[in-house]
Structure formats: C-alpha cells, structure tokens
Design a protein that fits this description.
Blueprint (H helix, E strand, L loop, with lengths): L11 H16 L3 H16 L3 E8 L4 E8 L9 E3 L3 H9 L3 E3 L17 E9 L2 E10 L7 H45 L4 H15 L4 E8 L4 E9 L2 E2 L5 E2 L5 H8 L3 E3 L11 H7 L3 E9 L2 E10 L7 H67 L8 H27 L8 E4 H11 L1 H6 L2 E5 L7 E4 L1 H17 L5 E9 L4 E8 L27 H11 L3 E8 L2 E9 L3
Parallel strand pairs: 15-17
Antiparallel strand pairs: 1-2, 1-6, 2-3, 4-5, 5-6, 7-8, 7-13, 8-9, 8-10, 11-12, 12-13, 14-16, 17-18, 18-20, 19-20
Length: about 575
C-alpha cells in the first residue's frame, strides 16, 4: 500500500479503509459486491452523500456509471462524454480534481442539484486511465487537499482490485469459451448435414460473442455467389433469403482476401447485403470471418451488434476458431454425402450388373435351343402350295423365330458396351480416390487406414469406375469384418510377371473356412445384411479386364485379397 507524508497515518479509519479495500480482491469474487464495498468505504470515510465508480466504454468513448451509492434515480445507466464534467475531465487527463464549491466551477456537470462539493481520482490500469472514482457532498468545502490525496490512494487500491477481478473474469470467460469450442467441435463432428453444421456455428457464435445476429453464407464457385444458409438471433433461427456477388460486399472482401474485416458503422458504409435488416434491427457494427478449407473458399461467418463496437483480439480469435471448426465440419458433411451417394450408387450398380449378367446368361441359354428349332423348322418342307392359311401361319412362325433371335442377340451385345469407357489411369490415382470415398465410413467404424507408398509408374487400361467399384467392395467388406475397429492396409506393386498387384489386408475376424472356396459365388453371404454379390461382381469385373481377384489368406488374424491387372506398355 502506498503512503504519503501529507496524510496523517495515525488516522486509523483511513488506514483501515484502505486495508479493507485492498483485501476485497482476495475475499470477494463477485465484482458487484466488491465495487459496492469500495463505495461504502469511501462514503463512510469522507462522510459523503454519494459516490460512484465510472468506467470508460471503449465502444462509445463515454463514461458509464458502473456502480453508485446515494445518487439520484436519474443517474442510473447515465453516460457522460469523456471530458465533460469533473469526472469526465479526470477520466480524460488522468489527474485528480477537487472542487469545494461546484457553483463556482465551470467544469461541473449537474446530475443532482443538491450537490455542493465534489472530488474525483482516476482509475488507472496498465498505465492507461480506465475510469474515475467520484465523491459528492451536500456541504460546501466538505473536502480538503488531504482528502483528495487519500482518495487517490483509494482509487489506486480500487484499480488494483478491479484489475485483479477483471483478470479472473477474463480467465474464467476464456476457459468457458475454450470449453464451449471443444464441445462445439465434438458436436459438429457427428453432424452429417451441412445445414445442421451451419445452424450450430451461427448459434454458438451468437452466444460466445454476445451478438444480436449471426449469419453464415456459403460460396458457390460456379455461380460466383454468396448464398445465405443460416441466420440466427437470440430467439433462434430466422427465415431470410439473401444472395450477392462477392465483389458487391464486404463479405467478398473478407472471403477473397482470406482475412477478417470489421465495420464500425454499417449505416455509413456502402454495404449491399442485409440492407433492410440492418435498418430494421438497428445493426451498427459487424465482424466478417472467412471460412476456408485447405485454401478453398467455403463461405463467411458474419456477426452483427446493435452498437458501435470494435471486436477485440480475443473476439476475433474466437470467431476464427469457429470458422475453422465450421470449415472442417462442412467439408466432412459434404464428404459424407458423397460417400453415401457412392454407396447407394454402388448398390444400384451391383443390382444392374447382376441383372445384366443374368439376362446375358438367359439370352445365351435361349439362343442355343432357338437355333436348333430354327434349323429344324427350315429343314422341314412344311409349306402347302394350295393351303394359303397354313402357309400364312408358317410365315408368322418364321418371323417370330427371327424376332426371338434378334432379342437374344441385342441382350448379348449389351454386355459388351463397357469397353468404351476404358482409358489409361494411374493405379495410384484409383487407390487414392477409392480411399477418399470411404474416409468417413472408416471414422465411423473406428478403423485406421494405412496406404503404403504407392508407385508412380503403374498405369492400367481400365474402366476406372468399375475397378474402383471392385476395390470399394473389398474395403466395405473389410469394415463389416471389423465391427469393433481395427486396421485396413492397402499396398500396390509390380509383380515379376509384369502385372500390377493390389493387396487389401484387414485385421477382421476372417472368413469361415467352409465358405472360403465359395466366396466368389453369386448370392453367397456370411451376414444378414449383405446381398452376396459384391465379391462375385468384383471378380467378374477384374476378369473382364484380363485381371483377377484372389483370396490369399483368411483367419482369426485377418484377411488378405489380391487384385491383379495387366499394365500398359
């Protein structure tokens, strides 16, 4: 505690008051009660009629009466411009001031006509003035110079108390914000719909940063447009449509520059989004944060408040963290959607392939006896020159036999049409793309995927979609065999015979020994959910590419499948 030679330290009341103020930070964690305690000590020590603690509002550059004792009801929530009145002058210049007779002081600003004397001392934190401690009296000449010096000491102690409490509050708030961000991240990882992700981001941004409105715009690269997908206020989600070009808005400046942008006064900017909403809701300031995933623009998170406000570093960091979490969650949700669509397409492809195979087999089986019937029919001299009706019937039979042969031929020819889709592809590309499609599925099943270093010089002439289908069948089957998690490994190499080889290894429960010789048969399945077509179709696909699919080994330690394909020259 500081001392002054001008203060009679024998005055135990003053010393005790200073001591009690200094201990408030250690004994009282509630800032309201602590501030009230400081003012009670000030009033008691100086015999004052009222006292107040005024703090500078950084957004409005005004003094706000944060806490008071004895002031009139009219003073509640009153804001005083810095520099106005004795308290405003002290806050502006950081110097104490004593007025024995307010009627003779031009600096005086009247809030209570009964006040006759006033003094104030600055509240200083970190070398800068943050407010003032003010004392009033209904009596003339109520305060002396020694009182002012003592008030300065009390203001210093009060500043220290406030600083400690603010630090504790900030740490608590940061801890709460960090915990919230962790929970938000956990929550969003489980969301599979982009709309759910966006609602979560805007809701949490609203709460964490005390905004009036939060919004999320998704960027459509093809259209070069920002589309509003989520808008929330304190009451919940709002229905609102908005689309704009990035070049027409601050939102686009943030997105294309990949930087946060603030606007302190939206009404004075030439902003082209939310024009009506900004006026109706009295929105004043805005913070825009770009949402980017691996340098690819996804959208923007924009936050609005109904006052002039500069978003500080902590607030910007929180908005950036939410945007980063949102970028990952949106990308995961989109990827999940692609995987789901791929799985659905795979199931449809399996059905179509099976139907096509069955149709070809049926057509082949029909064509052989049909040819025999046609030959026998042609060898028989059944025409009767005089019986026109019978000859007409024979002509109809011949026509229908021709028609049946044409149908069978078209079915058989249909199965040969996939060769048109074959091109030269890198085996590395095929494996990487297939692995990307099952990324979320792997996470859901708690299976880790290891892809060994893939050679760059392995090229195959294939229908890429069909080879990926075969590879996906193997990977999805492996996941079914590892319901409690496990490891999936893929490696590719060149065999001594000059072919490309892909090994798919899992740590699953293995295939029953009695089924291992039959796993490539159609409709054979070891589960209640499968169709029994995946492996059969995969083998047919690879054989159609002059390759093969083989089971190398299977047991309690896992299963290994081998894909072989001819390499291009």
């Amino acid at each position: 505690m500081e001392k002054s030679q001008d203060i009679d330290i024998s005055d135990r009341r003053a010393v005790d008051a200073l001591y009690r103020i200094s201990t408030l930070s250690g004994n009282e964690q509630n800032p309201v009660i602590a501030l009230q305690g400081i003012l009670d000590e000030v009033i008691s020590l100086f015999g004052a009629s009222s006292a107040s603690i005024c703090l500078i509002n950084a957004d409005s550059d005004k003094l706000l009466i944060e806490m008071e004792r004895g002031l009139s009801k009219e003073s509640k929530g009153f804001e005083l411009p810095i520099g106005v009145g004795i308290t405003g002058w002290v806050a502006l210049y950081g110097e104490p001031f004593l007025c024995s007779n307010v009627l003779e002081e031009e600096k005086y600003f009247q809030l209570d006509e009964r006040v006759m004397a006033e003094m104030a001392a600055p509240l200083i934190e970190g070398g800068r003035t943050v407010g003032a401690l003010n004392v009033d009296s209904l009596e003339l000449n109520a305060f002396k110079e020694n009182d002012l010096r003592l008030l300065v000491l009390m203001a210093k102690e009060a500043s220290r108390v406030l600083e400690n409490m603010w630090m504790v509050q900030q740490l608590r708030r940061k801890a709460e914000q960090l915990q919230t961000l962790v929970l938000v991240g956990q929550d969003m990882t489980g969301k599979r719909e982009v709309s759910e992700v966006l609602r979560t981001i805007t809701r949490e941004a609203l709460l964490l940063l005390d905004c009036k409105i939060s919004a999320f715009f998704l960027y459509n690269e093809e259209e070069d447009l920002l589309h509003l997908h989520s808008l929330q206020d304190r009451e919940g989600s709002r229905s609102f449509k908005e689309s704009l070009r990035p070049s027409d808005s601050i939102l686009g400046t943030s997105l294309r520059g990949n930087r946060q942008v603030q606007a302190r006064d939206l009404l004075r900017t030439e902003e082209h989004h939310f024009v009506t909403l900004i006026r109706e809701e009295g929105l004043h300031s805005m913070l825009v944060t770009p949402v980017v995933y691996e340098d690819k623009p996804i959208g923007v998170l924009s936050l609005y408040v109904d006052r002039s406000h500069r978003f500080n570093d902590d607030e910007q960091l929180i908005a950036r963290a939410l945007a980063d979490l949102g970028a990952i969650a949106v990308q995961n949700a989109r990827l999940y959607g692609r995987v789901f669509d791929s799985e659905e397409s795979l199931r449809k492809s399996e059905r179509l392939t099976t139907l096509g195979t069955l149709a070809a087999e049926i057509a082949h089986e029909i064509r052989n006896p049909l040819m025999v019937i046609r030959l026998l029919f042609d060898s028989l001299d059944l025409e009767q020159g005089e019986d026109e009706a019978k000859n007409k019937d024979l002509s109809v039979i011949r026509e229908k036999l021709n028609h049946l042969e044409q149908i069978a031929g078209r079915i058989l020819d249909f199965g040969k049409s996939r060769e048109a889709f074959r091109k030269t592809f890198s085996l590395r590309e095929i494996v990487k793309d297939a692995a990307l499609l099952v990324r979320l599925k792997l996470e859901q099943c708690q299976v880790s995927l290891h892809i060994n270093e893939l050679p760059y010089d392995l090229f195959v002439f294939v229908d890429k979609g069909q080879i990926q289908q075969a590879l996906l069948n193997l990977m999805l089957n492996a996941l079914v065999a590892m319901p409690n998690g496990g490891e999936l490994e893929i490696e590719a190499s060149k065999t001594e015979g000059g072919k490309a080889q892909i090994l798919v290894k899992d740590t699953g429960s293995g295939i029953l020994e009695e089924l291992q010789d039959k796993i490539f048969d159609s409709f054979l399945t070891g589960t209640t959910e499968g169709t029994g077509l995946g492996l059969s179709i995969s083998k047919r696909i690879l054989r159609a590419h002059d390759g093969n699919l083989d089971l190398l080994e299977s047991g309690p330690q896992g299963t290994v499948f081998k894909i072989t394909l001819p390499l291009t020259n």
